[in-house]
Backbone:
């Protein structure tokens, strides 16, 4: 954003701007008041279609995210991504709140899911590190795709969607997303602010894990390389169309490339170990 202050900086430094952001949050909360019902319906549809009757909710929460129109950043939503990851990673402790008001984690279910992951994939350090890379990358990919899609059409006003996203080996991310755009005030007068609201449920099913266990981890990691290559292509396209600024392009492209490099390292380690 060049010399322009970020929204997170303004909310810390200006009480008036913080009140403005608080009001926007309340308005989007009201407009998307059916988001939990939509998540309920999506989860029940998934169970009915796949017959995963042992599905358990590991974690659920909500998080607002603000950016200026040409700013593409995950800074204010990184806590949500990291919190979800803690409930996915076999090496991490429990989970927490992503900063919302309704965050809940079922630690017993999280522990059981992690034991199942080790049972299905094996307890090899190379395998578990590879799964961690896969899981974090999948969440990062899902959130990035939604932000990019909403940003492309933010000028058309309020939008919402709900979907089920496979993480792999029994894990599923159900995500309800809403977005709206507003004209900035004060120092951001003349710029456009985009607001997002994510409500999610991270679930796990042992029967789903067993059904997905036949897909090699190396195959899933290779598939993730294609997904992130496509994200980089979309970033380049948005930069060339002047839809994002160069700072946003550079920081996000660097983040995606770091994940790609990590996946390549995981694949090398797994192949050397005979997987």
Residues:
């Amino acid at each position: 954003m060049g010399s322009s202050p970020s929204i997170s900086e303004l909310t810390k430094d200006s009480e008036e701007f913080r009140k403005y952001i608080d009001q926007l949050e309340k308005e989007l909360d009201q407009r998307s008041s059916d988001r939990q019902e939509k998540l309920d319906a999506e989860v029940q549809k998934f169970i009915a279609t796949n017959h995963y009757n042992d599905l358990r909710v590991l974690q659920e929460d909500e998080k607002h995210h603000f950016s200026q129109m040409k700013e593409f950043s995950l800074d204010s939503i990184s806590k949500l991504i990291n919190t979800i990851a803690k409930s996915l990673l076999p090496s991490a402790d429990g989970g927490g709140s992503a900063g919302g008001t309704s965050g809940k984690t079922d630690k017993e279910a999280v522990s059981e899911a992690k034991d199942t992951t080790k049972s299905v994939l094996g307890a090899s350090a190379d395998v578990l590190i590879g799964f961690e890379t896969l899981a974090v990358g999948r969440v990062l990919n899902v959130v990035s795709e939604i932000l990019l899609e909403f940003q492309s059409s933010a000028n058309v006003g309020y939008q919402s969607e709900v979907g089920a996203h496979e993480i792999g080996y029994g894990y599923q991310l159900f995500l309800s997303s809403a977005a709206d755009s507003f004209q900035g005030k004060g120092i951001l007068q003349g710029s456009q602010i985009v607001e997002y609201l994510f409500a999610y449920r991270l679930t796990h099913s042992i029967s789903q894990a067993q059904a997905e266990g036949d897909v090699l981890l190396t195959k899933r990691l290779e598939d993730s390389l294609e997904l992130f290559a496509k994200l980089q292509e979309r970033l380049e396209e948005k930069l060339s169309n002047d839809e994002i600024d160069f700072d946003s392009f550079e920081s996000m492209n660097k983040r995606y490339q770091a994940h790609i490099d990590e996946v390549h390292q995981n694949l090398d380690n797994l192949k050397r170990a005979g997987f």
Q: What stands out?
A: The chain is about 55% helix and 20% strand. The chain has a mean pLDDT of 86. Residues 126 and 272 are 10 Å apart (CA to CA).
